[in-house]
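Suppose a colleague, Dr. K., hands you the sequence of a protein chain of 279 amino acids and asks what its three-dimensional shape might be. Before reaching for any lab equipment, you can write down a predicted structure in token form. Begin with the sequence itself:
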Amino acid sequence: MKTAIVTDSTAYIPKELREKWNIHMIPLNVIFGKEVYREEFDITWSQFYEEVKTKELPTTSQPPIGQFVQLFEKLSEDYDAVISIHLSSGISGTYQGAVTASTMVEGIKVYPFDSEISCMVQGFYALEAAEIASCGEEAEAIIKRLEELKKTARAYFMVDDLSHLQRGGRLSSAQAFIGSLLQVKPLLHFENKVIVPFEKIRTRKKAMKRIVDLLGEDASSGEAHQAVIIHANREEEAEEWRKELSTMYPNVDFSIGYFGAVIGTHLGEGSMGMGWMKK
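The predicted structure, expressed as tokens, is then:
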């Protein structure tokens, strides 16, 4: 059985990895005024953080359903099935778009998968699926494996300014107000597919240390994990963190990812996070 792997741009999988594992990508859009940019195609993460310094904060939009239909139909020429892996359905309609499109195509079976998360942790699912698919495994078996991984997936992040999340409707007004009033750096995470505060922490340094402690709780088992340090235009800081943590946790394979244009619109520059799951 030939199974294609599709994800969306918010997985932020490096291009060379997408090409190596033949992962197809549907872009979300970031909109500055009347200018629409397809994330990861028309605008990179570094270009985005330059743009927002001189322009008003953009808005974002999910891919049109027609784009999914077009891609699925094209894939039906060479594949029997598609696994379509997307950012959490609690913060975007992208997954639902894939579900709707799956009912509109013939000649190929589509399996939409809600990662219930985003960024490179979502990317981990796509890479795992692609590797298994390359061995000719059935689509149902791949989905089963992704569901197993989901039980071990964690992600925590902190933002410098809660107003972006609040403005985009990703965090309630009351939570944003309390955060700015107390000057806290709340640690956030996904719970039931939406972004909610995990703990309220007063400083950036303490928030980052708390993320490390949470990783340590899982990594202390000695089992092999993969982890990604995710930054919003803080590449050097992320690299320093990676070096430090690689020494602390030799059983964890660390990589560096980023909050790209769409997720960066909602979190703001300076945000930092980490996600991990068992290998």
